[in-house]
Amino acid sequence: MMMRRLMEILLILCYRHAGRIEEVKEDGGSVKKLVYLIDYAIRNKVIPLTKGTEDVLHEFRTLGNYSAHGIEYQCRKTEINKVKQAYRVCIEELLYGSGLKK
Asked: Whose CA, among 5, 8, 33, 102, lies 20 to 30 Å from 24?
């Protein structure tokens, strides 16, 4: 769940850094759901992401959703181990895209 939240925050910061934050906001001013942020980033190339990162963004979102909303679900270390390298690459790319890392 925390991994998902970090990814979401970094995506939002990427949009802000690119000067395109308004494109991902609701009418009330709140940021749209993570599924929209991911799809919009991939479709419109707002953030420079590699194909590998684009391919796993929804996987991380789904894993985080299960952890956050599944009352009976407990994410296990084995599940994290399967995605940790791809996740690290994803976060690294988002850190550069957000301007937090140069």
From this structure: 102
Structural domains of the chain, count: 1
Q: How long, in residues, is the chain?
A: 102
pTM of the predicted model, to two decimals? 0.90
Q: Averaged over 82-99, what is the pLDDT? A: 95
C-alpha closest to that of 49 among 38, 65, 62, 61: 38
In a domain, 102, yes or no: no
Give the H/E segment covering residue 14. helix 2-17
Residue-by-residue DSSP string for 20-62: -GGGGB-TTSPBPPHHHHHHHHHHHT-S---HHHHHHHHHHHH
Task: Look up the domain containing 57 and give its range.
Answer: 2-97
- Residue 29: the pLDDT is 93
Q: CB–CB of 18/47 below 8 Å?
A: yes
Residue 48 confidence (pLDDT) above 90: no
What value does the mean pLDDT take over residues 26-31?
Answer: 95
